[in-house]
């Protein structure tokens, strides 16, 4: 269990931790000289339950609230300290508000310096404390008078903490590693050490991790948890990691040490925000965001809606990227860092910068507010855009990929590795039906056209899936025989483009001119018109019609190749790319294969570049494996 102190300056938080653990958490010379806590202090003790309880001692001074927030994140229980001779002070109230906004729901209130007040004063203070806690998640917290001078209540407090430690539920260690850094320093003979509470996952010596948002890779040399050297630490423990690959000044408070797959910092976040003093939010308001142990300036943009419990939907635009997780809690303070404005929960780490306040976005954010990943995914799939990028969803919630099947059990998962989407089966069925209906309507209106282009078909459908995912859906439909794809066009199997009898007669005379030995260097429109003694515009019209019917391809202006020839040239490109050591081949190599002039060979290669069959780098080309089956 991790216990975090809270309370006004000089109310005895550090002295109480010392009485419970025997450790003085004021480690800085200035702290000892001034008698106040300036930075986070840490202590560990076995309170009698057989486990080691960690204490995070935070400053009480109003100017150090940002440090208090860094220490309060991730604690299991708050030890709220209120001096009997002072009572509830402004910083006490602010700390209580911060604990509530961060979602801390377990606490013990210690009335410190009980030896300085009489029984009646302490009874009155009990009533004041109960009233202050009544509207917070800490309303049921026990209240206990204590004195480090006389020893009053210390053993009872220790017993309470031991019971709370025994009741603390172990966090899930199966997730990805997330450790929020609150200290970074160097130890002689060891190197760089970072400390923090392990929010999720498990870490062991030898693990390869990443410091985010910088993206710097590091290796765990060794670790300590709860002040003991160990081989492996699990979520919930306070951990010190000895890291290889990073210097102390390359890691700062607020950075995260994470599993490599979680490194995806963001500078734009949609959140659910609860104000301490509700008031209309002016768009563009600047505030200080405290997230984990990080502090950064944020510009706030209201999204024009609220959740049922009154939290306002807001987009935060950050001055620099941060590592974060959906569901993390945060605190907002004013621009001068003198007053806490509110706090809340992160809902979306990849929100749009435009059309961010639509009813569809509001519905998606309400769904994203669900904590359970499986339930959240189901809710998101039921609202626009009706699909979820599954790998992004898992990463942004720190859900291990091994849990993907369980989380998406009620969905269909389609698309390439790393770019998969989850979609409800009924939505996918509706999409396939819409494809059929769209193509049928197109064929009825355009009987002479071969079909609809891949991209045009994708853009015409709802939901508008990412291109790689739509290609996977299309491949499934083609494999099942529901659709046919030819040269970048999609059609229904029963559709056969038609040409008039007169045009068929002329085409029958043209086709031989484009075939046989001259197929790789066919005559152009003007040459065909001269050979057949027909008007050049008429030949051009007929050739364009033939291209729409899929019989020929227009490689360049007035230069048409039979579809069979195009497919043959595509096969040559696949062979040339496969034979090259690195996949890249030259235009002269292709020219020699088709035995045509350099100009025609370049025109053909440019045609394939436009279609995406090849990618170009200077004078070299390579087969695009994603479009390798185009012909």
TrEMBL record:
Superkingdom of the source species: Bacteria
GO cellular component, as recorded: cytoplasm
Tr-type G domain mapped to chain residues: 1-171
Entry keywords, A to Z: Cytoplasm, Elongation factor, GTP-binding, Nucleotide-binding, Protein biosynthesis
One MF term in the entry's GO annotations: adenylylsulfate kinase activity
Subcellular compartments: Cytoplasm
CDD domains in alphabetical order: SelB, selB_III
Keyword Lipid metabolism tagged: no
Keyword Nucleotide-binding: yes
Gene3D superfamilies associated with the record: P-loop containing nucleotide triphosphate hydrolases (3.40.50.300), Translation factors (2.40.30.10), Winged helix-like DNA-binding domain superfamily/Winged helix DNA-binding domain (1.10.10.10)
GO biological process, one term: selenocysteine incorporation
Primary residence: cytoplasm
Role: Translation factor necessary for the incorporation of selenocysteine into proteins. It probably replaces EF-Tu for the insertion of selenocysteine directed by the UGA codon. SelB binds GTP and GDP.
Matching PANTHER family: ELONGATION FACTOR TU, MITOCHONDRIAL, ELONGATION FACTOR TU-RELATED
The protein's name: Selenocysteine-specific elongation factor
Originating organism: Paracoccus aurantiacus
């Amino acid at each position: 269990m991790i216990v975090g102190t809270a309370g006004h300056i000089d109310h005895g938080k550090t002295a109480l931790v010392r009485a419970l653990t025997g450790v003085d958490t004021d480690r800085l010379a200035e702290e000892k000289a001034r008698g106040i806590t300036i930075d986070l202090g840490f202590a560990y003790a076995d309170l009698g339950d057989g486990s080691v309880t960690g204490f995070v001692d935070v400053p009480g001074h109003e100017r150090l609230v940002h440090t208090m927030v860094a220490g309060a994140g991730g604690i299991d229980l708050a030890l709220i300290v209120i001096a009997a001779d002072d009572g509830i002070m402004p910083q006490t109230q602010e700390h209580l508000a911060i604990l509530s906004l961060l979602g801390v729901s377990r606490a013990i209130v210690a009335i410190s310096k009980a030896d300085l007040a009489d029984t009646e004063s302490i009874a009155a203070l009990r009533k004041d404390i109960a009233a202050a806690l009544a509207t917070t998640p800490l309303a049921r917290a026990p209240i206990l008078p204590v004195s480090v001078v006389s020893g009053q209540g210390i053993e009872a407090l220790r017993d309470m903490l031991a019971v709370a430690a025994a009741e603390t539920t172990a966090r899930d260690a199966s997730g990805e590693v997330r450790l929020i850094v609150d200290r970074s320093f160097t130890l002689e003979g060891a190197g760089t050490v970072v400390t923090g509470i392990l929010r999720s996952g498990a870490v062991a010596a030898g693990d390869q991790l990443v410091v985010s948002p910088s993206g710097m890779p590091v290796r765990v040399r060794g670790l300590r948890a709860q002040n003991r050297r160990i081989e492996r630490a699990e979520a919930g423990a306070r951990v010190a990691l000895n890291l290889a690959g990073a210097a102390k000044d390359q890691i700062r408070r607020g950075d995260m040490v994470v599993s490599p797959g979680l490194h995806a910092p963001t500078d734009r976040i949609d959140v659910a925000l609860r104000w301490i003093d509700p008031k209309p939010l002016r768009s563009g308001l600047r505030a200080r965001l405290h997230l984990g142990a990080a502090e950064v300036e944020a510009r706030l943009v209201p999204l024009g809606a609220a959740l049922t419990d009154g939290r306002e939907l807001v987009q935060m635009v950050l001055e620099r990227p941060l590592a974060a997780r959906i569901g993390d809690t945060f605190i907002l303070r004013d621009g001068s860092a003198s007053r806490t404005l509110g706090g809340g929960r992160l809902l979306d780490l990849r929100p749009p910068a435009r059309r961010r306040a639509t009813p569809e976005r509001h519905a998606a954010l309400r769904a994203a507010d669900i904590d359970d990943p499986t339930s959240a995914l189901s809710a998101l799939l039921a609202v626009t855009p009706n699909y979820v990028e599954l790998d992004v969803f898992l990463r942004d919630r720190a859900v291990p990929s091994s849990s993907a099947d369980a989380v998406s059990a009620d969905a269909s998962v389609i698309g390439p590795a790393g770019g998969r989407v989850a979609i409800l089966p009924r939505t996918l069925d509706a999409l396939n039906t819409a494809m059929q209906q769209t193509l049928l309507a197109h064929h009825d209106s355009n009987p002479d056209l071969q079909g609809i282009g891949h991209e045009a078909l994708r853009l015409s459908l709802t939901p508008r899936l990412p291109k790689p995912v739509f290609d996977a859906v299309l491949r499934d439909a083609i494999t099942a025989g529901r659709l046919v794809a030819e040269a970048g066009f999609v059609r229904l199997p029963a559709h056969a483009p038609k040409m008039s009898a007169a045009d068929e007669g002329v085409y029958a005379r043209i086709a031989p001119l484009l075939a046989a030995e001259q197929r790789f260097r066919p005559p152009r429109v003007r040459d065909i018109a001269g050979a057949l003694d027909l008007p050049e515009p008429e030949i051009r019209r007929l050739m364009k019609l033939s291209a729409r019917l899929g019989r020929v391809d227009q490689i360049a202006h007035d230069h048409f190749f039979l579809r069979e020839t195009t497919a043959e040239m595509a096969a040559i490109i696949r062979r040339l790319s496969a034979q090259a050591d690195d996949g890249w081949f030259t235009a002269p190599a292709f020219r020699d294969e088709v035995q045509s002039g350099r100009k025609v060979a370049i025109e053909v290669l440019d045609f394939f570049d436009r279609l995406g069959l090849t990618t170009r780098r200077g004078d070299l080309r390579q087969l695009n494996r994603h479009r390798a089956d185009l012909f």
